Task: inverse folding
């Protein structure tokens, strides 16, 4: 389980940044689309 927690800590920032970037791109598309 310890390695799972480390993997999650390593992946969560990446996943969060990807989702945040996608949401911002979508909102930009709706605003200027």
Result:
């Amino acid at each position: 389980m310890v390695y799972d927690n480390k993997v999650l800590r390593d992946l969560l920032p990446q996943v969060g940044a990807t989702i945040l970037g996608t949401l911002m791109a979508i909102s930009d598309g709706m605003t200027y689309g």
